[in-house]
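Exercise 7. Given the encoded structure of a 515-residue chain, write a plausible sequence.
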C-alpha cells in the first residue's frame, strides 16, 4: 500500500466530516452528534490538550466507561500527533499505576466513577496532569469546561503512517502488561479489512456495547463505521435488555459481541419477541462460538460473522463469513484482504500441508510495530522473516480455512477478557496460606472459560475461595479473580520442575472443588 494513500486517524475523520457534516455520527443517552458536531469537539479537545502542554509523541490516557468523549479524546490526541492510551476501567489501582507509569502518560482524563481509584495510587504516578471527563472535582478540573472556554484551535499535525497512534495494553505471560504500539497504518489497514469484509456503508447503524478500551470494541466495528460515514450508537455498558431495545429503536444493522453476551441476550425474557429484523450482521469474537448458540441466532435469521484476532494485530486476523458458518463449523475463517497468515512448526519451517498443526503466524499492515519500552518482548514476538508469532496452535483445511486447536501460552479467555495465569499467580502467592499455586482455565457454559486456581497450602493452614478473592480483589480486576478453588497435596511437575498445566486441566475433572 502506497504511504500517500494511508490517512492518519484525525485526517480521515476530517475528510469524512467535510463529505457529510450533517449526518448523524454518534448517539449516546438519547443525545446525537452529527459529524460536524463531533469534529468541533475534537478540535476543542485538541486545544485543551495543547494548552496543558501535550506535544507530538506525548501519551494521553483515558479512563472511563464507554462514552462519546472517549472517541473525542482519541481523535483529538491524534490531531496533535500525540499517542492515545485507553485504560481498562476494570483494573485495580496497582494495575493501572503500572500501565500509567510504563506508558509515561503526560495527561490522564478520567470519568467520575474512576477518579477515586486513581487518587488511591496518585502519589505513585509519574503523570502530573489530571482532568475530569465530567464535572470538576477536587484535584480534577473539568475537560468540558476547558473545551467550552478555549479561544483558539491549534493546527492539525501531519503524521507519518508508521507513527504510533495508540498504546493498547495487554497482559503478558510474565505477569506484567505490555503496550502494543499500534500505528496509524495499523488502524487504516484494520478499518479497510473490516469495510471490505463486512461491506460497511454510510447507511449502517452500529450498536456498541463492548468496551472501547478493547481492540474488539474499538476496531471491530466502531471506527470502521465512522470511516464509512455510518452512525454509531454507544451504550455505556452491556445490558441484555437495553441491547434488545436499542436494536429495535435505532434500527441497528450491525453490532459486535462476545459469545457470553449473545448467550445472555438469548436468555432474556424479551428475546423471543424482540424486533431484530434490522440486523444484517452480528460480528462475534473473543471466544469460540458454541454450536447451539450459532443455531439459535440462525433460527432468528441473524447472520453471525465470526473472527479471530488479538490486540497485537489491531483486532481481526481472520474472518468467517456467515454463509460458511455451517459447513466450516469450528473454523476461524480466512485472513482479511490486507493480512497474511502461515503455520510454522517448532523448527520455524512453514507448514504447507492441510490438517497439520503449527503455530499461527501473521504478517500484514495491521500488525503492531512492537511493544512499548520492551525491546526484548518485541524481538521475541517476531521471527527472522518478520512474521508475528501469535502463540496459538492451529491448522488449515484444503480451502485455507483456519481452525484453532490450542494455545502455546496458557492464556485464559473469560467473557472475551484475556487473563494470563502468571499475573494472577503473582498476586495469589502473597497470601500467607499459599505454598504453591497454579492458575488454569476450565470450560464454562456462560463465560467460555473460568479461572481456576489449584493450591497447595502451607502446613496447618486453611483457605476458602471467598477468603482468597477478598484478599486479591484490591489488586486484580474482578474477571481475573478465581471462580473456583481446588486444593491439592502437590502440583504435577516435569523433570525440570516446571508445573504441568495440561495435567492439571485433566486432573480437574476428577477432583472436587473447595469451598
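Solution.
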Amino acid at each position: 500500500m502506497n504511504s500517500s494513500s494511508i490517512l492518519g486517524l484525525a485526517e480521515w475523520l476530517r475528510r469524512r466530516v467535510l463529505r457529510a457534516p450533517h449526518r448523524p455520527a454518534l448517539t449516546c443517552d438519547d443525545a446525537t452528534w452529527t459529524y460536524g458536531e463531533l469534529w468541533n469537539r475534537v478540535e476543542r479537545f485538541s486545544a485543551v490538550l495543547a494548552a496543558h502542554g501535550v506535544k507530538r509523541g506525548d501519551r494521553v490516557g483515558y479512563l472511563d466507561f464507554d462514552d462519546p468523549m472517549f472517541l473525542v479524546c482519541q481523535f483529538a490526541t491524534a490531531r496533535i500527533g500525540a499517542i492515545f492510551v485507553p485504560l481498562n476501567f476494570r483494573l485495580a489501582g496497582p494495575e493501572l499505576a503500572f500501565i500509567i507509569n510504563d506508558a509515561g502518560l503526560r495527561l490522564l482524563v478520567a470519568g467520575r466513577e474512576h477518579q477515586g481509584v486513581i487518587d488511591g495510587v496518585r502519589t505513585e504516578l509519574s503523570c502530573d496532569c489530571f482532568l475530569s471527563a465530567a464535572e470538576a472535582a477536587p484535584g480534577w478540573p473539568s475537560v468540558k469546561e476547558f473545551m467550552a472556554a478555549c479561544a483558539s484551535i491549534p493546527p492539525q499535525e501531519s503524521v507519518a503512517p508508521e507513527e504510533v497512534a495508540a498504546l493498547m495494553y495487554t497482559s503478558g505471560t510474565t505477569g506484567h502488561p505490555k503496550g502494543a504500539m499500534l500505528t496509524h497504518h495499523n488502524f487504516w489497514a484494520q478499518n479497510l479489512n473490516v469495510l471490505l469484509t463486512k461491506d460497511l456503508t454510510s447507511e449502517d447503524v452500529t450498536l456498541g456495547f463492548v468496551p472501547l478500551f478493547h481492540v474488539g470494541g474499538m476496531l471491530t466495528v466502531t471506527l470502521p463505521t465512522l470511516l464509512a460515514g455510518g452512525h454509531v450508537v454507544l451504550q455505556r455498558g452491556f445490558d441484555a435488555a437495553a441491547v434488545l431495545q436499542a436494536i429495535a429503536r435505532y434500527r441497528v444493522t450491525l453490532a459486535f459481541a462476545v459469545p457470553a453476551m449473545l448467550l445472555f441476550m438469548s436468555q432474556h425474557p424479551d428475546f423471543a419477541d424482540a424486533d431484530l429484523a434490522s440486523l444484517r450482521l452480528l460480528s462475534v469474537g473473543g471466544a469460540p462460538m458454541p454450536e447451539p448458540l450459532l443455531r439459535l441466532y440462525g433460527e432468528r435469521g441473524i447472520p453471525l460473522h465470526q473472527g479471530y484476532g488479538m490486540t497485537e494485530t489491531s483486532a481481526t486476523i481472520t474472518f468467517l463469513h456467515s454463509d460458511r458458518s455451517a459447513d466450516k463449523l469450528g473454523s476461524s475463517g480466512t485472513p482479511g484482504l490486507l493480512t497474511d497468515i502461515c503455520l510454522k512448526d517448532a523448527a520455524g519451517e512453514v507448514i504447507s500441508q492441510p490438517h497439520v498443526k503449527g503455530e499461527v503466524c501473521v504478517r500484514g499492515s495491521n500488525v503492531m510495530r512492537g511493544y512499548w519500552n520492551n525491546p526484548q518482548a518485541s524481538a521475541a514476538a517476531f521471527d527472522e522473516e518478520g512474521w508475528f508469532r501469535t502463540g496459538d496452535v492451529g491448522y488449515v483445511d484444503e480451502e485455507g480455512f483456519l481452525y484453532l486447536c490450542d494455545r502455546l501460552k496458557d492464556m485464559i479467555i473469560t467473557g472475551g477478557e484475556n487473563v494470563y495465569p502468571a499475573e494472577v499467580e503473582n498476586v495469589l502467592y502473597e497470601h500467607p496460606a499459599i505454598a504453591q499455586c497454579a492458575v488454569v482455565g476450565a470450560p464454562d457454559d456462560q463465560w467460555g472459560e473460568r479461572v481456576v486456581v489449584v493450591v497447595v497450602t502451607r502446613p496447618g493452614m486453611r483457605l476458602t475461595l471467598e477468603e482468597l478473592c477478598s484478599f486479591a480483589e484490591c489488586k486484580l480486576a474482578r474477571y481475573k479473580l478465581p471462580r473456583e478453588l481446588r486444593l491439592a497435596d502437590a502440583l504435577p511437575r516435569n523433570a525440570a520442575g516446571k508445573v504441568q498445566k495440561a495435567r492439571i486441566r485433566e486432573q480437574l475433572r476428577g477432583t472436587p472443588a473447595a469451598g
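Remark. The longest helix spans residues 35-51. Students should compare their own answers with the one above.
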